[in-house]
Amino acid sequence: MTRVLEGEVALVTGGGSGIGLACATHLARDGATVVLAGRNADKLANAAEGLRADGAAVHTVVCDVTDEAAVQEACSVAAGVGRFTMLVANAGTGSAAPFHLTSLEDWNSVMNTNVTGAFLAMKHSADHMARNGRGAIVAISSIAAPLTHRFMTPYCVSKAALEMLVKQAADELGSVGIRANAVRPGLVPTDISVGLTSTESIVADYMDQMPVGRLGTTDDIAASVRFLLGPESGWVTGQCLSVDGGHTLRRGPNLTPLMEMAMGPLAHPGAPA
């Protein structure tokens, strides 16, 4: 089988587990050298060991995407490995609270990681990609961008902002051969979604909104990312691809039972303290 990404380097933020690691796996299978970036050195080392066992060329770099100097260094590491032409802006976080009880700390934490972190990764990869003559960026968004998720306001707003960031990057960077797209996963069991996937009633409600009635897998998402990064999608940019079993045809999830179970009457504004 032709390794169509041979000689190309991909930087994957949040690459130590979950969707990021699955993306790295799919890219490496097609010949790319992958650079895993994340905050936890041990997690990165374990992920890299597993990929190398399958014959992948892997490098790691400790990086908090909210730290501009660290992101710039991660991009320099990727450029130092070889022809840096691919970025997966995957690092993300979330929070859950009633709107009226959402703290500024939680708001800023989600925005800084999901929006600012993606911006910094795109910003500092762009020069390297332009010098290499082309590039492809894929950001990991969410069905929470187009669909409201009650009690997840910072996350929803951050993902909506991320999609506009992708469109802006696509519009501005296309002239130097850089494409930018996003993938919108539905509910996929990962470390970040464990609070949802471990609650039977929440999973059942998600399933009710999916014409293809199953939870997603990290491979479902990674296969779409691989397509958007590769030459097969060379005339695709500025797009947001929903990979969600059709969830975005219907409504967002009903998280009210989970929040009421956790907070009781305080889940709703005006409840007595």
Structure description:
This protein is an alpha/beta fold and 273 residues long. The chain has one domain: Rossmann fold, CATH 3.40.50. It contains nine helices and seven strands; from the N terminus they run βαβαβαβαβαβαααβα. It has helices at 18-29, 41-53, 68-81, 104-131, 153-173, 194-197, 200-208, 218-229, 256-263; strands at 8-13, 33-38, 58-62, 83-89, 135-140, 178-185, 240-243. Strands 3-2-1-4-5-6-7 form a seven-stranded parallel sheet, sandwiched between helices. α4 (104-131) links the parallel β4 (83-89) and β5. The radius of gyration is 19 Å and the shape is globular. The N and C termini lie far apart (64 Å).
Form type? globular
User: Order of strands in the sheet with the most strands?
Assistant: 3-2-1-4-5-6-7
Strand percent estimate: 15-25%
Q: For the record, what is the CATH homologous superfamily label?
A: NAD(P)-binding Rossmann-like Domain
Instruction: Please trace the helix and strand order, writing H or E for each element.
Output: EHEHEHEHEHEHHHEH
Radius of gyration: 19 Å
Number of helices: 9
The assigned structural class equals alpha/beta
Helix content: 40-55%
Could you tell me the CATH topology label. Rossmann fold
Count of the separate structural domains: 1
CATH class: Alpha Beta
| β-strand number | 7
* Distance from first to last alpha carbon: 64 Å
Overall pLDDT confidence: 96
CATH architecture: 3-Layer(aba) Sandwich
* Poorly predicted tracts of residues: none
Biggest β-sheet strands, sense, barrel: 7 strands, parallel
